[in-house]
Specification:
Radius of gyration: 26 Å
Structural class: mainly alpha
Distance between the termini: 60 Å
Strand content: under 5%
Largest sheet: none
Shape: globular
Number of helices: 13
Helix content: over 70%
Order of helices and strands: HHHHHHHHHHHHH
Length: about 375
């Protein structure tokens, strides 16, 4: 065997070793994913910051200067969140934990002496059922709270490793953005080395389409969730005057990353927290969350995501329902960019089939 032939076998040997470790090591795949966490973080950060880098590079032609400016903005936002927002969140959570006993008392008092507008509860078996199970429910709630606190302590202990992963992710993302053309060419050469020219062109086109859609979707959902979180905070604090408006808005804002149905998912704990302090306000919170979800699902979300991905609202909703039904929350989150890619493929296929057919669509100006 020639020396060059032996060198060519080295990548195959390395790949074999990795596959062997994955197969024979306990939880090999999970271990690999844990090891690659900084890389996943780096890719996520690079995807988010790449549009900003492109914008900055229009004015500063130097890649290094542009990267420095982009990461100063990125780190500035993080520092602002840590120094301004984080202390308020921690204080709200601390106050909520201190009020656990008060919450349990309010639940007891609500069923024992419901408000006049809700006195129909005395005529039904709701109070009896609660009275029979209140102690077991309280005990279970205490166990859950204790488990959550233990988990929080464990998370605090392991926070160092998470911080290290995040710092490594930032550093790796810098190199990804600096050499992004290199990785683009590497993807290009890899595809052409494995497939014929026609298939390679289609795969590359789909790959770039998916990258653009995922980037636009993530950026769009971040803006959408920030707006919904702010509206939820203002509504909870100044309109409903609910307790812990910061916690409520934070939960609704985070769950809003799941399109359309996110505010409803985040609204469940918001309604519960509000209702145990004031049942009437709890009813208003239900109405507020419903209106917020309709506004996000029918107006704000389609405007932001529909423009970003060129998808009609009905296709976004359909994609979310199918993705959520098949793959759960992750499927709901990724359904929209995947649907945009599918739409592009189907549209090009139909254009190819209809190219030589003289067809006049009845609603050509309206339908796309």
């Amino acid at each position: 065997m020639k020396k060059n032939d032996f060198i060519k076998l080295i990548p195959i040997f390395i790949l074999y070793v990795i596959i062997f470790k994955l197969i024979y090591q306990d939880n090999g795949v999970i271990t690999l994913l844990q090891v690659c966490v900084p890389i996943f973080i780096a890719i996520f950060i690079a995807v988010i910051l790449n549009p900003l880098l492109k914008f900055v590079e229009r004015y500063f032609k130097n890649r290094i200067i542009s990267i420095i400016i982009v990461y100063m903005i990125f780190l500035g936002v993080i520092v602002l969140a840590i120094t301004v927002i984080a202390p308020s969140i921690v204080q709200s959570i601390s106050d909520f934990i201190k009020d656990i006993d008060k919450i349990i008392y309010n639940i007891n008092n609500f069923f024992a002496n419901p408000p006049e507008k809700l006195d129909f509860l005395l005529d039904k078996e709701a109070y009896k059922y609660f009275e029979d199970n209140v102690y077991s429910v309280t005990e279970k709630a205490t166990e859950i709270l204790t488990a959550l606190l233990n988990t929080a302590v464990s998370s605090i202990i392991s926070v160092t490793s998470k911080v290290i992963n995040f710092i490594l992710g930032i550093l790796i993302s810098i190199y990804i953005l600096y050499d992004k053309e290199h990785f683009g060419n590497l993807f290009y050469k890899s595809v052409y080395s494995l497939f014929d020219n026609k298939s390679s062109r289609e795969i590359i086109k789909i790959g770039y389409e998916l990258n653009n859609n995922v980037t636009k979707f993530i950026i769009g959902k971040i803006f959408d969730s920030i707006i919904i979180g702010v509206i939820a905070f203002l509504g909870a604090k100044y309109i409903i005057k609910a307790p812990y408006p910061l916690i409520i808005s934070l939960v609704i804002g985070i769950t809003n990353m799941i399109p359309y149905f996110g505010p409803l998912i985040g609204g469940i704990p918001a309604v519960i927290i509000t209702a145990v302090f004031d049942p009437i306000k709890g009813l208003w919170m239900i109405l507020f969350v419903f209106i917020l979800q309709q506004f996000d699902g029918l107006v704000l979300g389609p405007k932001i995501l529909g423009v970003q991905l060129a998808l009609k609202p009905v296709w976004i909703i359909t994609a979310i329902i199918i993705g959520g039904g098949l793959f759960g929350p992750i499927g709901m989150f990724l359904a929209t960019p995947v649907a945009a890619v599918c739409k592009t493929i189907i549209k090009e296929f139909m254009q190819m089939k209809l190219k030589n057919k003289n067809i006049k669509l009845p609603y050509d100006k309206k339908s796309k």
